[in-house]
Specification:
Helix 2 packs across helix 6, helix 3 crosses helix 4 and helix 5 packs parallel to helix 6. Strands 2-1-3-5-4 form a 5-stranded parallel β-sheet, with helices on both faces. The protein is globular and about 70 Å long. The chain has 2 domains: 27 residues, no CATH class; 152 residues, Ribose 5-phosphate Isomerase B, Chain: A (3-Layer(aba) Sandwich), CATH 3.40.1400.10. The protein is of the alpha/beta class. Strand 4, helix 5 and strand 5 form a beta-alpha-beta unit.
Length: 196
């Protein structure tokens, strides 16, 4: 937020320059998502991470970055030279999160959608395919997402690092959003019987 005295001084100068007829209204810009994070360092988390061959390079970069942030990393594959299909990797990461072995999970494939679909088949998983910082923040804040899915064709290393950091540091807001997360859990339990 702009300092109040500074705002008044700027308004006065603009008024002098433009004359009394011009109304001057100064407001500070809306803070970016990064600036709306809670204050204080979050506790270290245990993060499962995995990718198919199209996300391998980004997975390695993010695993290193997670370590730099103080989180412990469980690499669920793939390993270099041993390609695996994204549903296998989605299962490996999601299983660790669903069983409570890891606090959160990160999946990377070429687009992100396939891994998100596969991960969301696992009971207890709320995976969101995100392509920008605000979507990543919102997936935690409103949906209590426990798996972040990135598409390596759409997200570069710098953006992926910002997204992961914000996603890990953003708490679930609860309140009115809890009702909706509970509805998702109910759908997961009751499902839909399509046998007519």
């Amino acid at each position: 937020m702009m300092d109040e005295d500074l705002t008044k001084r700027i308004a006065e100068r603009v008024k002098q320059a433009l004359g009394e007829k011009s109304a001057v209204r100064l407001e500070s810009k809306v803070p970016r998502a990064e600036e709306r994070l809670p204050r204080g360092k979050p506790p270290p988390l245990k993060v499962a991470i995995g990718s198919d061959q199209r996300g391998f390079t980004l997975k390695c970069q993010l695993a290193e970055y997670l370590g730099e942030l103080g989180h412990s990393v469980v690499d669920c594959g793939m390993t270099e030279g041993q390609p695996r299909d994204y549903p296998e990797i989605a299962l490996a990461v999601s299983e660790k999160v669903a069983r409570g072995v890891c606090d959160r999970g990160v999946l990377i494939d070429m687009v992100g959608v396939g891994s998100a679909i596969a991960a969301n088949k696992i009971k207890g998983i709320r995976a969101g395919a995100c392509y920008d910082v605000e979507a990543a923040r919102s997936s935690r804040l409103h949906n209590d997402a426990n798996v972040l899915v990135l598409g390596s064709s759409f997200v570069n290393r710098g953006l992926a690092r910002r997204m992961v950091r914000i996603w890990l540091e953003t708490p679930f807001e609860g309140g009115r959003h809890q009702k909706r997360v509970d509805m998702i859990s109910k759908l997961e339990i009751e499902g839909l019987d399509t046998r007519f």
